[in-house]
Amino acid sequence: MIAFPNIKINLGLSITEKRPDGYHNLETVFYPVALEDALEIRTSPGTDRKFTLYQHGMEIAGKPEDNLVVKAYLLMDKEFHLPPVEIHLYKHIPSGAGLGGGSSDAAFMLKLLNNHYQLGVSEEQLEVYAATLGADCAFFIKNRPTFAEGIGNIFSPVDLSLSGYQIMIIKPDVFVSTREAFANIRPHHPEYPVKEVIRRPVAEWKDTLINDFEASVFPQHPIIGDIKKELYHHGAIYASMSGSGSSVFGLFAPDALLPEIDWGTDTFCFTGTLK
Ligand SMILES: C[C@](O)(CO)[C@H](O)COP(=O)(O)OP(=O)(O)OC[C@H]1O[C@@H](n2ccc(N)nc2=O)[C@H](O)[C@@H]1O
Ligand SMILES: Nc1ncnc2c1ncn2[C@@H]1O[C@H](COP(=O)(O)OP(=O)(O)OP(=O)(O)O)[C@@H](O)[C@H]1O
Q1: Domain boundary among 137, 157, 177
Q2: Which residues are in the GHMP kinase N-terminal domain (predicted)?
């Protein structure tokens, strides 16, 4: 059985408080975008190994047992005593991009196992499992536009459709550690709450829908700020870094002709249309 884990972008990201457990409370809107990995599971009988991970496409740092798809499998195996599986993961989604690629793989693994082995786990319970694997992992269970608060795991639906808008996502060859990005932030409550700005037309978001990480990440990696400027220069209606970076996305009107920009060979570039 195969699934296609997609990414999220953050529309606004306010880091409001540091918590006693070291994590941060935040407010953001997650929006799904169809830049996808491919994830397949097959039962592999007659083997002692619980799992074998075959990786294709972009490389991911770390051992197989550190991969979030394996962590998701082991979590479900503990609860449901699953048969051994072969896992094929084809990575298209860049890592360290703020696009939630690893979290998405993990959430889709939970959904795949639930469907393939007919475990009968509810979406709500899958969200509980997902939240143990990564702060924004649970979003990918329902995978629809969502207002998130808490550490990024308390959800309410938002009435927002960007259907038809074109998106350009650019990720320079720069790795931003999510942990370090949080460490450099001074939390504060936003002048313009994300939930309110998002109700305004996209054309009004430019100076009010803020990703707090930009202020700490751009000075360290000026190239990321330059990409955002370039997207505006070429007609983006709204542009922002996603999550803790290093990717930047630009939203363009449905009928706009997307610019052809030479970002250089080490830069990842995706264009698509939002659903
Ligand atoms: C920044 C976002 O991309 C916004 O969508 C996400 O909240 C990040 O979520 P994520 O990559 O799933 O994050 P995790 O892998 O759970 O956490 C990585 C590290 O970031 C810090 N962290 C993460 C989430 C959060 N609300 N507060 C934090 O301080 C913690 O130091 C944690 O050890
Ligand atoms: N299946 C996976 N895909 C990508 N990275 C994974 C995976 N499993 C574990 N990782 C580890 O997770 C780290 C973060 O990867 P991820 O793609 O989620 O980054 P990100 O885009 O910064 O996500 P986020 O928006 O959640 O911060 C990587 O450095 C990698 O070592």
Answers
A1: 157
A2: 67-141
